């Protein structure tokens, strides 16, 4: 799925020397990377590495201590409305009103995003995510995976150039996960960019064109999954954690970040 070439190298997202602190605790310590048009970029890291903090700074939810972030050329700090108009964020299911039907929710958010949808367009969106039969169900009555599908469709209503997905497939069954990967590929095919976080190395290998591994708030590796495996396949730390003789991305990840479970 990640074999197609990156068609263009126009940077949609640029993060430069990002520092995020909570009080005196430094969660992100000078992270820099860019994501290009038509690229699916994965941010990987152990629990507490600083992935969500990085995403939150890009989304403008937290103010970085220092650093620059631009989305489609607009500074998130100086032109937040322009930057936000060019990004789609998959909201957590708890962000939605459980008592509204999914039709009402999609209609509501399409208005909020400034792209009001007609009834036919809302129905088409529900068809797309195989929930047309549930159009009158309340959001709170959907399963976790169904709620996640609604959330993704809402995040892309305004056809943003950058889509941010924080662990988008957690809790999804294999069918729903494949469907979400297909939807991510569709976003890529339009020349848009996707930044996602995941703890699934299988997902990173299957979906991402490039990945960055973050640990203790710092970026410790960045490349294509294939190149990372090739670069580290002979590292003793990587070989020592490999389980079946074949070096995987997970072996490289654990080799680079260590076996210790994070607090
Ligand atoms: N609001 C906050 N106040 C204080 N510390 C915070 C806050 N949010 C995050 N942190 C801390 O910052 C660090 C980075 O957290 P962050 O949520 O960015 O990690 P993550 O890589 O997304 O982890 P996970 O994989 O567990 O979701 C952690 O040590 C966390 O405890």
UniProtKB/TrEMBL annotation:
SUPFAM superfamilies: P-loop containing nucleoside triphosphate hydrolases (SSF52540). The lineage of its organism: Bacteria, Pseudomonadati, Bacteroidota, Chitinophagia, Chitinophagales. Belongs to the ABC transporter superfamily. PANTHER family: ABC TRANSPORTER ATP-BINDING PROTEIN (PTHR42711), ABC TRANSPORTER ATP-BINDING PROTEIN NATA (PTHR42711:SF5). InterPro entries: AAA+_ATPase, ABC_transporter-like_ATP-bd, ABC_transporter-like_CS, ABC_transporter_ATP-binding, P-loop_NTPase. It comes from the Bacteria. GO terms for molecular function: ATP binding; ATP hydrolysis activity. This is ABC transporter ATP-binding protein. Keywords: ATP-binding, Nodulation, Nucleotide-binding, Transport.
